[in-house]
Structures are given as C-alpha cells and as structure tokens.
Specification:
416 residues; mainly alpha; 0% strand
C-alpha cells in the first residue's frame, strides 16, 4: 500500500466493520515500525479500535495520537465521526479531535458545524496553524473577509514561510479593499515566500505593474520561469503592460520601439501561447507613430495595414484601433462608421444595456466610459477624454486591461 495511511485506514475499516477490532488495530500497526512514528489520523483510528476491542490502555493511545503532527492529513469518511467523538469523550479538550471533526463536517458541506469544532480547537490551541487557516477560509466562504483576516494573520505569523497562507491572506486583504500600495509593500517584505509560489509572485508583479513599477516587474517577467495553467493569459497581459509602461517612459523612439517589440512577444518562460488569431492593433498602432518619428514609413505603413484588417462584428477596442488605422490610410468614411458604432456601444454600456457574460453593472458602465475616453482622445479633446477616463477608473480601476482582454477574446472568437 506504499505507506499511504489512507489505504491502511480503508483496510482496517473493512475488519472493523466485521467487528474485528483487534485485527483492525493490527493493520494500522503495520503502517510504522515504531508506533510513535504513526501519523495522527491513523493513530486516532487505532486508539478507537483499541477502545472497541476493550483494551484497558486505549485512553493512553488517544493521548498519544493527540500529540502528533496533523499536516497533510484529511479526515473525510463518515466513520471518522465515531472516531473523533469518542476521542472527545476521552478528552473534551483534545484540539486535534475537534480539528479532524471539522474536516469531516466540511467534507459534508456543513460549514457551520465545521466552524464550531474549529473554534473550539483554536480556543484550546491558538497556535494550531491549520485551524486558524481553515477558520479564515470559512469566513471568506461566508463573504466576511473582515472576520477572516485575524485568523489568516495569526496563521501567517506562525508560518511565515507558508506561501499558500500568504496568498490567501493577500486575497483577504484585497477583498477588504486594502490599498494596492499596502498590499504590495507587505508582499515585498516577504519576498522569499512570495517567490516560492508562482501564483503569488504573479500577484505581486501585477501590483507592481498597476502601480507603475514596470522595470522591476519586467526584470522578473524576463528571468523567472512560470509554471502557468493553460488558458491563463493574465500574466501575459501584465507583462505587455510592463513593456508598454517602459516604452511610454522612453525618450528615444528607438528605445520605445524596443519595448513595444518585446510586448508583441510571448516569452517561453511565461508558458502562455498566443490566441489564434492574435489581436495586434492595440500594440501596432502606437508603434506606427514611433516608426513615423524614426523615419521608417514603410514599416509604419505595414503595421497600419495589418491593424486596418482587424475587424470584429462586436465593437471592442479592436474597432477603435482599426478605425484609427483606416483614417491614417485615407479611408475616412469607413473609419467614421466604425467609430460611430463604438460610440453607440459605449452609450449602450453606460445605460447598462446589452449583454456581457460575467460582467457586473459597474464593469459594463466602466467599459462604456473607457470607450468614450478613447473616442474623445481620437477627436483631439484631451479634457473630455480625461473626464471619461476618471469616471471609468472610479467604477473599475482595472478596466483598461479588461478592455484589451475583451477585444482579444472577441477577435479570436475564443472563450478563454
């Protein structure tokens, strides 16, 4: 059974269900040559079997089980209810028995009973990291991040190298509306823990990009190998934003183009493949202006023509850049028609009409104001553009990225 304690428990229960409690205890005894090396969960089962077999020393076995390590052990069987309720009859202050009972009830989707046992466990043993984390998870499930926070803070203070707890602590702080600057500062204080988990490192880099720390973020994007789940494009969008941010800071057109060219790439270490077809206009159009400044009219024209061909039935940010490209190519009637369609879409979104799956009202309205901001920018009205952009960001500070993602998905005809 390859030393898998769950397999030993399963076999032991076969004997126990036949009333063969001594044999069930013997099966658990095979798990470790030294009984003290037996993990907590099977040790509780063995103590339970010994009580059922009438062993006068069974209470001592429960005491021994309650002192063992509980990490990476999960009680989920209905039979575990009898095991741990018996343990609590022997010792009502057995925090580990409360912990395991909580896991059983959580497996039954009875979070109220699970939380009740975990609260008793943490009252008895405040330094139990797993119980503190589980109570945090329960409160998050109840949509009470304020109540989850102290549990996560306690858990992390006890286990400052546990990247999962830090990730969930940051998620809790985010749901509470903690400012991004504060979240980033806290993650930077624990950088070694952050760097041990790609999902957490991705979060920290995303915060850097959103707060304008493009160069530092870009250095990590270029050197760290991320093990990314298939279909997770967020990291690449943040990488592109870091490149664009560096390009916008560059005084020299050639240097800015270098960063834009980086933004068009899909570095292998990010483990993100391009969508097919891959929308390019939101990158190519700014590059056109830089190539024109650098005197490379041929390359500027080539990128304009590519952007002008990027059409979608549904007006998105892709339509905006297509229209600008068409205008620059002298096809002004086509350009005006596309921009009018985008303006109509923007006003529809602001009225909260139309459908955008999984987008709430604020996000839809933010997108509408964002489109209006871009349209006024194209008309040479920076004051109105700024006004609309502020309205968009007030509703959703991440709307600029969401507009790009929606355009990419719509253009590719995908649902990723």
């Amino acid at each position: 059974m390859r030393g898998d304690s769950q397999c030993f428990i399963e076999l032991a229960l076969e004997y126990a269900n036949c009333g063969l409690y001594e044999e069930a205890s013997d099966v658990i005894g095979l798990l470790a040559q030294n009984p003290e090396d037996c993990p907590a969960l099977p040790a509780y089962y063995q103590a339970f079997f010994k009580i059922r077999a009438g062993d006068p020393a069974a209470r001592d076995w429960f005491t021994s089980a309650s002192r063992r390590e509980i990490d990476n052990q999960f009680s989920f069987r209905p039979e575990a209810l009898d095991v741990f309720q018996t343990a609590l009859e022997v010792n009502p202050r057995d925090s580990r028995a409360h912990y395991f009972l909580g896991l059983v009830y959580a497996g039954f989707s009875d979070l109220d009973k699970a939380a009740l046992h975990w609260e008793k466990a943490v009252d008895i043993e405040p330094a139990n990291i797993r119980v503190q984390r589980n109570l945090g998870l329960v409160e998050l499930h109840r949509d009470k991040p304020g109540k989850a926070l102290p549990h996560y803070e306690k858990a992390f203070s006890l286990a400052p190298n546990d990247s999962r707890i830090l990730m969930e602590l940051d998620m809790t702080r985010d749901r509470m509306g903690v400012r991004r600057e504060q979240r980033l500062a806290f993650l930077k204080q624990h950088r070694s823990t952050v760097e041990s988990r790609d999902a957490l490192l991705t979060t920290m880099l995303d915060l850097m990009v959103r707060l304008g720390e493009h160069q530092e973020a870009l250095e990590v994007y270029r050197t760290h190998h991320f093990h990314n789940w298939e279909g997770r494009y967020t990291i690449h969008n943040a990488y592109m934003e870091a490149c664009i941010g560096m390009a916008e800071q560059a005084a020299d057109p050639e240097r800015a183009l270098e960063y834009y060219r980086m933004a068009t790439l899909y570095p292998e270490n990010l483990e993100v493949a391009p969508r097919e077809p891959d929308l390019r206009g939101f990158l190519y159009y700014p590059m056109v202006k830089l190539y024109e400044k650098a005197g490379d009219q041929a390359e500027a024209r080539r990128l304009l023509e590519i952007t002008a061909r990027e059409s979608c039935e549904e007006p998105t940010l892709a339509a905006y850049y297509q229209a600008l490209a068409l205008r620059d190519l002298g096809r002004k009637d086509e350009s005006r028609g596309i921009l009018a369609g985008l303006e109509a879409k923007a006003n529809q979104l602001i009225r909260d009409e139309g459908e955008l799956p999984r987008w709430d009202s604020d996000k839809r309205r933010a997108l509408g104001y964002f489109y209006l901001s871009k349209l006024r920018e194209a008309e040479g009205d920076p004051d109105r553009a700024k006004e609309y952009l502020e309205q968009a960001l007030e509703l959703d500070h991440g709307i600029a990225r969401q507009a790009v993602v929606l355009a990419q998905i719509t253009f590719a005809g995908s649902h990723q």
